[in-house]
Specification:
The complex is a heterodimer of chains A (about 280) and B (about 190).
Chain A lengths: L1 E4 L2 H4 L4 H13 L3 E4 L8 H7 L3 H16 L3 E2 L3 H16 L1 H11 L9 E2 L1 H8 L2 H6 L9 E4 L9 H4 L9 H8 L3 E2 L18 H17 L4 E4 L2 H9 L8 E3 H9 L4 H5 L6 H6 L5
Parallel strand pairs in A: 1-2, 1-3, 3-4, 5-6, 5-7, 7-8
Helix pairs in contact in A: 2-13, 3-4, 4-5, 4-6, 5-6
Chain B lengths: L2 H9 L11 H5 L10 H10 L2 H5 L3 H4 L5 H5 L6 H14 L7 H17 L4 H12 L7 H8 L13 H11 L9 H8 L2
The chains are: A alpha/beta (about 280), B mainly alpha (about 190).
C-alpha cells in the first residue's frame, strides 16, 4: 500500500515524535509514505477564526497537490485532517468556492484522493490479525485512557467518523496490543488546545479536569492522535506529571520499532513509566 | 439582510430551529468564561440584538470543538455559526470581544503568508511582543525550544506566494495588525 503524506506544520515542530513514530510504524507495516511536495499550511484554527472561505481555500492547495499523486493522503494531525476533510465537503457543495479554488490551484475533482487519519488507516485498512502477527512486544497491561479530543470526531456528518460521544476504535486497538484501556467518560471532551496561547487559565482548567479524570480511571498515561492535544496536555498540567503518548508511539513499541529519541521530545518524559512496564530497555 | 439571515446563509445552518434546550451551552468547554453562551447567542440573533452578539467575547472564546453541534437535537452546528459571526464582526469594523485572540490569529496568518507554513518560534515571539507582556507564560515556550521541538530558522516553501494570495484575498492585512483597519472595511464586505 502507498499513501501520500502530509505531516503539517506541527509534525515538523512541536509534534516531532509523532512524525518520527508515524514514519517508523508505517515503514514496519509496509505502507509507503510519499511526502506531498511543497505542501502548505492548512490555516489551522486561525483561518476559520477570521474567514470561512479562507478556511477552505488554504487546504484546497494541498488537496489539489494530493490529487495529482492519485493517492489518499495520510494526515496524522487531527487539526490538519479536520480542516482538509471539511474543505473537501465544502468544495463539493459550493460551486462558487470551488471555482475560486480551481482558478488558484488548477482543476481537481476531489474524488482522486481522500485525507485520512492514522487511526482510520490502521483500524480499517489493515486486517487486525495481520497487524497483531507483527507485534513483538505486547503492551504488558499498561493502564491507559484513549483520548480523541475534538477534531477527529466532529463534525461527525462530514468526517464520517465514529460515534462522537462513544468512540471505540482506539480502545479496541490498544486492548488488542495488550494495554489495559481504562473506561472513562472524557475521550471526546475538548482540551482547549486552540485557546492555549490566548486563554491559559481556561485551558489549565480543562486540562486539569482531563488529567484528574484519567487518574481516577486508573490510567498512568493518556493516548492521543492529535499533536495540539498532546502538547497542550503536557504543557498545561498544573499538578502531577502524567505522560501523554501518541498512538503511533505505542504501536511503535508493540511493533519493535520505537526509539529513545521519541521519549526525549516529550515535555513529560514517558520513559520511566515505560521502563516500569518493561516496554523499553 | 439581517445578521441572522447572513449568518445562516454563510454557515449553512438553520438557526430558527433552535428551541432553547441549552444542551449546547451545557456541554460547551468555554461557556464558563462566556458572557452569554451559544444558546443565548442564537436567541439574541433571532431577536435582532446584533451589536451585543458581534461585540461579545463569546465569539472569540469558542474553541471550535463542535461538542454543541454533536449534541444539538435540531442538528445545528454552532462552530461554523461562530466562524461566520467573527467574520461579520470584522466586516463591520466592530472591536473584537477578545482583542488578544484576534491579534493571535492575524499573526498566525501573517507568518503563513510570508512562509507558506506556520513557524512556532516566530509566532510565539511576535505574539509576546505584541501583547506587551514578553515574559508572562514564557516558561512553556522556552521548554519547547530546549527540547529542540521548535526550529528557530523558518523555512519558506516554493509556493508561498499562492498561500499569500489566498490570505490577502480573504483577510487583507492579516500580517500587519496595525495597518489593516482601513483595508478591512472595504475588502471584508
Amino acid at each position: 500500500m502507498e499513501l501520500a503524506y502530509y505531516p503539517g506544520c506541527s509534525l515538523h515542530s512541536t509534534g516531532q515524535e509523532f512524525d518520527l513514530s508515524v514514519r517508523a510504524v508505517f515503514s514496519r507495516l509496509e505502507i509507503g509514505l510519499a511526502e506531498l511536495e511543497d505542501w502548505s499550511c492548512c490555516g489551522a484554527s486561525s483561518a476559520h477564526a477570521l474567514d470561512p472561505d479562507m478556511a477552505v481555500l488554504l487546504p484546497a492547495r494541498n488537496l489539489a497537490l494530493a490529487e495529482r499523486t492519485g493517492l489518499d493522503v495520510l494526515m496524522p494531525c487531527a487539526a490538519c485532517y479536520n480542516r482538509h476533510a471539511v474543505a473537501t465537503a465544502h468544495l463539493r457543495e459550493d460551486p462558487a468556492l470551488r471555482a475560486r479554488a480551481e482558478a488558484l490551484f488548477g482543476a481537481f475533482d476531489g474524488a482522486g484522493s481522500r485525507p485520512r487519519p492514522v487511526l482510520e488507516v490502521v483500524c480499517q485498512d489493515l486486517a487486525r490479525p495481520e497487524l497483531l502477527a507483527k507485534v513483538v512486544r505486547p503492551l504488558n497491561g499498561l493502564p491507559l485512557v484513549s483520548y480523541y479530543g475534538c477534531l477527529l470526531l466532529r463534525p461527525a456528518a462530514i468526517l464520517q467518523s465514529e460515534d462522537p460521544e462513544n468512540p471505540v476504535l482506539m480502545d479496541e486497538l490498544l486492548t488488542d496490543l495488550g494495554a489495559d484501556a481504562r473506561r472513562w467518560s472524557y475521550a471526546s471532551e475538548c482540551c482547549g488546545g486552540g485557546l492555549s496561547l490566548t486563554r491559559p487559565p481556561a485551558v489549565k482548567r480543562l486540562v486539569g479536569q482531563l488529567v484528574a479524570a484519567a487518574r481516577e480511571a486508573g490510567a498512568e498515561a493518556i493516548v492521543t492522535s492529535c499533536p495540539l492535544c498532546q502538547v497542550n496536555l503536557e504543557m498545561r498540567q498544573a499538578s502531577g506529571r502524567m505522560p501523554v503518548l501518541y498512538i503511533t508511539e505505542l504501536l511503535g513499541i508493540a511493533l519493535g520499532v520505537s526509539s529513545p529519541a521519541w521519549w526525549k521530545k516529550h515535555l513529560i518524559d514517558p520513559a520511566p513509566l515505560l521502563r516500569r512496564y518493561a516496554l523499553v530497555n | 439582510m439581517t445578521l441572522l439571515e447572513a449568518v445562516e446563509h454563510r454557515s449553512h445552518q438553520d438557526l430558527r430551529l433552535c428551541f432553547q434546550c441549552h444542551k449546547c451551552t451545557a456541554g460547551c468547554p468555554s461557556a464558563e468564561d462566556m458572557l452569554f453562551g451559544p444558546d443565548r447567542v442564537i436567541r439574541m440573533l433571532q431577536l435582532g440584538e446584533e451589536r451585543q452578539v458581534l461585540g461579545s467575547p463569546d465569539l472569540w472564546l469558542c474553541a471550535g470543538c463542535g461538542t454543541c453541534g454533536a449534541r444539538c437535537p435540531n442538528g445545528i452546528d454552532m462552530a461554523p455559526v461562530m466562524d461566520s459571526l467573527r467574520a461579520a464582526a470584522l466586516a463591520r469594523g466592530i472591536r473584537a470581544g477578545d482583542p488578544g485572540a484576534l491579534a493571535f490569529h492575524r499573526l498566525f496568518l501573517g507568518v503563513a503568508r510570508r512562509l507558506g507554513r506556520s513557524h512556532e518560534a516566530s509566532l510565539l515571539i511576535l505574539y509576546k511582543l505584541r501583547s506587551g507582556n514578553l515574559f508572562a507564560d514564557m516558561g512553556s515556550g522556552i521548554r519547547l525550544v530546549l527540547k529542540g521541538k521548535v526550529p528557530l530558522v523558518p523555512h519558506r516553501i516554493a509556493g508561498w506566494s499562492e498561500v499569500a494570495e489566498v490570505i490577502d484575498a480573504c483577510a487583507p492585512g492579516a500580517g500587519e495588525p496595525q495597518g489593516e483597519a482601513s483595508a478591512r472595511s472595504e475588502a471584508w464586505n
